[in-house]
Each structure stands twice: as C-alpha cells, then as structure tokens.
C-alpha cells in the first residue's frame, strides 16, 4: 500500500510539474493517465520494495554526494588519459566481489561502477561483478572497497 | 557563450558520426549513436535557451526517453540475433525483461 | 551585480562542459578498442552533460524550465549506466567477449578452442561470419 501511494505521489507530481496548465479537463486527463500507468505497473508486478526504495530515501542524499565527487574525480582521470593518448591506458578486466544483503544493493553497486567513467560493470554472476577498467589503477581503487562500503552503508 | 556551446556540441556530434562510420564493430556504431543521441538532447536544451523559448525543453525530455528506448531496442535485436552460443546464464537473466518489453 | 555573477558562473560551467565533452569525443576516436571507447563515451554522458545542464539551470532561474532541466539531468543519469551496461552485456554475446582474467583488451575471441564439440561448432562459425559482416 505504501508503495502504491508513493508511486501515485511521484506520478502525480511529475504530471503537475510538467503540464503547467491547471484546468479541470487537463487535470482529469492527468488523473486518468496516472491511474492507467498504475494499473499497468500492478499487472507487471512492479509495485514493490525493489522498484520504489522509499526506505532508502533518508540516506540517499549523502550517497549521491559521495558518488558525485567520485564521478568528478574519475572524469578528470579519464580526460587526462585521453589527451595523453592510447599509450597511457592499460585496459584490464576482472571479477570484483560484491556481497550485499539484497539484489537492490548489487544493482546500486553495479550502476555506480558503470556511472563512474573508467570502470564499467559488464556482468553479474552470483556475488561477483565482472568489471572492465580503463587503467589498472581504476581497478585497484575498486578492489580497495570504498564504493562497496558506501553502498552497504546505504542499504543497511 | 551559448553559441560557442552549440558549436562544440556540433563538433562532438560530427566526431561521434565519424566513429559510427569507421566502426569497426556493430557495438562501436551503437555506442557512437548513443553519444550522438545524448548530445542531441543537450543541443535541443541549449537551442531553446538561445531562442528564449523554454517550452522546447519538453522536446528534449521526450527525445531523451526515445533515445534510451531505441538504443536498448537495437541492442536487444543484435544481442539475440547472434546469441546462438549463449549457454544458459545470460538467457535466464533476460527472460523476465523479455516478457515485459518484448511483446 | 548578482546577474553578472550568475552569467559569469554559467559561462564558466559551459566552457568546462565543452572541454570535457570534446575530450570525451576525442577519446571516442582515439582509443584502440570497443571497451575503452565506452569509458570515453562515459565522460561525455556524465560530467559534461551535468555541467552544461547546470549552466542552463543557472540561466533559467526559478521557473518551470528549472524543473524540466532537472528532470532531463535525472533521466540522463539514470539511463546512461543502463544503456552502457546493455551495450557491454550485448558485446558479451559477440566475438568481443571479455575474459575475466586481467589481460590486454579483448583480442581473445573464442575462450575454449580445445573443447569445441560438434554442438558448439556451428555457433562459433556463425559468430565468425557475423564478425566479418560487422
């Protein structure tokens, strides 16, 4: 029920903010489309803890800030490598352990890896992520486990 | 400054097109098209500020959605066309999504 | 005064965004194989887009445009890793397949040539033909 309400609130907010016209006719169109999307989402079984992680909401801003600083740093690294030329890179791929309480944690971890340039999560098998990195340093950084700790602190 | 940004965006889009033409694999081309699409979204947003018409942002928003859906759609086509040597693992992970998005 | 500050700041963000964007595109051309090019594309998708949209947000001020720009940014940040992952995952089903051992690039096309049984043979040939066409 909580997740149904959360989905309704989000959809209604997006409609209201995007439309900018507040007449009776358009508002009723909005209500109809929100309800239609909710019926479809319910049929597909999408309304659950995994698609609406409202329980993470209070800890998300801190994680996003950390991820943002991480993205800025790795962007600068990759740009330096671009201008130095192909001689400065050392592409590697390896399996990195990813032990989390839930699938949601794994998804967050893999998406964070992909979002930071220089590392891409290619595949998940069990408790391991196959990662391709632009430089050996980037892979070592990931092995250091800072990101894993942050994600684990988020989902706890 | 907005004009210079538009110029830079166009240069980037031309570079992406060059990569799309050079290939060499189909995945390089899809990657280049993805970059091209993302830059189109930004270009539309910048143009709407140059013209002073904020309502064009809706187009950028819709283009962002279409770009994502089309890239994933094209990828799935190529993934399963050549996916005959896929032995189990990948196939199983993709089955739930297939029911939702495929048909 | 504050107008001047906002304009200057947004100009600075635009310039930085252009720099990162062009760097990413140069990397897209310069890097030697598919996976490394994917990292270069990541630069244009994340920080460059963020900087440019932020500059536009500064110019928009408090309006509906600000919210829409925020939505565009949010959407690009959510879909870009999904698209990258789908791309890498799809490449796993092709001759570009990565091996999890640490090695240079993706030149190891077929992982187990010794174990090629009759069942696996046609699939491998199909793949090779596919690579030729691509």
Q: Helices, strands, pairings?
A:
The complex is a heterotrimer of chains A (156), B (103) and C (134).
Chain A: H1 2-19, H2 24-43, H3 60-84, E1 92-97, H4 103-115, E2 119-125, E3 128-133, H5 136-143, H6 146-155
Antiparallel strand pairs in A: 1-3, 2-3
Helix pairs in contact in A: 1-2, 3-6, 4-6
Chain B: H1 2-22, H2 26-50, H3 57-81, H4 89-101
Chain C: H1 2-30, H2 34-60, H3 64-91, H4 120-133
Describe this structure in words.
The complex is a heterotrimer of chains A (156), B (103) and C (134). Chain A has six helices and three strands. Chain A is α+β, with helices and mostly antiparallel strands and 156 residues long. Chain A has a three-stranded antiparallel sheet with strand order 1-3-2. In chain A, a hairpin with a 2-residue loop joins β2 (119-125) and β3 (128-133). Chain B is built from four helices and no strands. The termini of chain B are far apart. Chain B has 103 residues and is mainly alpha-helical. Chain C has 134 residues and is an all-alpha fold. Chain C contains four helices and no strands. Chain C is 73% helix and 0% strand. Chains in contact: A-B, A-C, B-C. The A-C interface holds A 14, 17-18, 20, 71-72, 75, 78-79, 81-83, 85-86, 89-95, 110-111, 114-123, 130, 132, 134, 136, 139 and C 20, 23-24, 26-27, 30-33, 35-36, 38-40, 42-43, 46-47, 64, 67-68, 71, 77, 80-82, 84-85, 88-89, 92, 98-105.
Find the structural class of chain C using helix and strand composition. Answer: mainly alpha
Radius of gyration computed on alpha carbons of chain A: 20 Å
Instruction: Tell me the number of structural domains of chain A.
Output: 2
Count all strands of chain A and give the number. Answer: 3
What's the oligomerization state?
heterotrimer
The SS-based structural class of chain A is alpha+beta
Shape of chain C: elongated
Number of domains of chain C: 2
Helix content of chain C: over 70%
Mean pLDDT of chain A: 83
């Amino acid at each position: 029920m909580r997740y149904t309400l959360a989905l309704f609130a989000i959809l209604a907010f997006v409609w209201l903010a995007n439309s900018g016209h507040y007449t009776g006719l358009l508002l009723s169109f909005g209500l109809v489309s929100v309800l239609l999307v909710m019926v479809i989402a319910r049929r597909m079984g999408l309304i659950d803890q995994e698609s609406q992680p409202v329980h993470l909401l209070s800890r998300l801003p801190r994680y996003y800030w950390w991820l943002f600083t991480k993205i800025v740093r790795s962007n600068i690294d990759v740009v330096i490598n671009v201008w130095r030329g192909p001689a400065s890179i050392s592409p590697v791929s390896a399996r990195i352990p990813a032990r989390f309480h839930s699938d949601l944690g794994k998804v967050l971890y893999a998406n964070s890896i992909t979002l930071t340039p220089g590392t891409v999560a290619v595949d998940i098998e069990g408790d391991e992520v196959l990662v391709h990195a632009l430089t050996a340093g980037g892979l070592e950084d990931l092995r250091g486990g800072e990101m894993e700790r942050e994600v684990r602190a988020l989902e706890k | 400054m907005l004009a210079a940004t538009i110029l830079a965006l166009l240069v980037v889009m031309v570079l992406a097109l060059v990569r799309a033409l050079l290939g060499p694999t189909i995945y390089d081309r899809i990657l280049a098209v993805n970059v091209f699409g993302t830059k189109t979204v930004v270009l539309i947003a910048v143009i709407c500020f140059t013209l002073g018409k904020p309502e064009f942002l809706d187009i950028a928003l819709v283009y962002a959605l279409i770009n994502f859906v089309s890239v994933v759609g094209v990828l799935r086509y190529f993934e399963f066309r050549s996916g005959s040597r896929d032995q189990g693992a990948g196939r199983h992970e993709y089955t739930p999504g297939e029911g939702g998005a495929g048909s | 005064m504050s107008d001047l500050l906002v304009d200057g700041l947004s100009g600075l963000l635009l310039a930085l965004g252009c720099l990162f964007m062009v760097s990413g595109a140069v990397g897209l051309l310069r890097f030697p194989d598919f996976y490394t090019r994917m990292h270069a594309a990541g630069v244009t998708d994340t920080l460059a887009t963020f900087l440019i949209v932020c500059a536009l947000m500064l110019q928009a001020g408090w309006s509906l445009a600000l919210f829409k720009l925020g939505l565009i940014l949010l959407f690009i940040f959510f879909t870009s890793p999904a698209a990258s992952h789908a791309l890498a995952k799809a490449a796993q089903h092709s001759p570009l397949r990565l091996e999890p051992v640490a090695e240079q690039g993706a030149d190891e096309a077929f992982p187990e040539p010794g174990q090629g049984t009759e069942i696996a043979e046609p699939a491998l040939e199909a793949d090779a033909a596919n690579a030729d066409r691509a």
